[in-house]
Amino acid sequence: MEDYSAGNDYSKYMPKANNANDDVVSLAIEKTGVGRVDLEALRQWAKKRWTLDETHGYPHWRRVELNGIKIATPNTDEDVVRCFAYLHDCARVSNGPDEEHGPRAAEIALTLRETLLKALTDEQMEKLLRACREHTTTHRTGDDTIDVCFDADRLDLGRVGIIPDPYKMATVNGALEAKESSLVGDERKRERDDEPTQKPKKEKSHTLRNVLFVLLAALLIVMAITNPDRKQHEFAIRDIATEYVDDQISSVTGKGGNIIENLILKGVRLVSGFATDAIVDKYLDEHFKVDNYGLFSIGTLTLPNDEEKKVSFGIFGNVISYSNDMDDSNNDEQAP
Description:
By secondary structure, this protein is an alpha+beta fold. It has 13 helices and four strands.
């Protein structure tokens, strides 16, 4: 079964030319049958008034004509079949459902009776009008010419993804052609079913990878936006710094040996307590730094012995402080 698409070579279905120099297809289209209708003029008329795409346009008309020639019998009036090919869809207003386009096509064909179709006899004209009028509504008429017109159109359903059904054909030749077409269609379907077995998995993996990529990108953006700044780090370690400064003051003032010394030390600590906030602010300004790594940040404190301690870690808008580092350092300084 040939694939009936535009551009295929249908010459093997056509009568052979007497003159070897003549074009075989052209002779078959123009000279087979009675040949009294100016088909080229009819084609040009149909093409000029056509406004839709090729689904029901010229390539389809041409294939209908060629299908009709292929399934015709000695009782088929090929002039009527050819005229039908270029007129049956000429009144369509859309490529979708258009139930009245057949009757409208018959009305238009009737207007051409005295011009492009004047070579047809009254009997031919009646068959052409009925074929146009009923080609989407009637299964079979019993007239070989009209039924060939119906099947020639039905055999081109493959252009819209429908395999012609042999049981819906009106002629024996049409049914045989549709049966062969359905066998070819089934074989192609099996090939398609066998071929892309890995494609869904590949497409699924691509989809999963894209989703993961989007989620990762979103996570990185959130981390960058919520990365804590210096103020957040200072707020998180302020209690630690204050405790450290207090410890340093206590280590300087020491413990009193008698009641008078203890009273003096308490006074000193009381006064220094009021100044602790200012001391902590100054200490943090001079000895605390925050390194911003884009997605997270780390706070580092320089101790009096010039040792640097990482005391805070910031991520997702939160700062985690490490008080143990300060405590260990403080213990080291107070060790005898």
